[in-house]
Sequence to fold (159 residues):
Amino acid sequence: MIEKAPSGPDTASKPEPAPSLVVAPMARIDTSQPRKESLIAADITIEGKIEGGGSVRIAGKFKGDVSVQGDLTVEAGAKLTGRVRADKVTIAGELEGNVEEASRVELLQTGVVSGDLKAGSLMVAAGARMRGQAEFGWDDGKSSKAGRTAQEAPSGTGS
Fold:
């Protein structure tokens, strides 16, 4: 059954208001909370490139470059084939490629690396395997105090 809207002098002169749109303010990114972590599950194989600000955990197989501002973890049984740039890199599985930049690399007991490592610090557990070159502990001028000569250093005499 269809009902007809009432008509008459009262309803004809009043236009119905259009529904108003309420726009919520954009959420601010809270940098005090830990970064989100993305997971490539054990039964997944992906080929491509990973870039971003969060952390990545690989439990499956990934072929491509990884460049994240957070941490990268390669789980035991997982395989990553490609170049790596991350804050902290933890390898319990297999990495076939170079760690081009990391503040810390941890090669765990089940970890295997076929490639070169460049990191601020390196921790290698007994049983881990690596074929390649490792460069760690060098600042490379990234710190503001690095590379200052004795003449440039502030003196305590005050005159």
Notes: Confidence is low (pLDDT under 50) at residues 20-31, 142-159. Residues 67-132 form one domain. The longest strand covers residues 99-107.
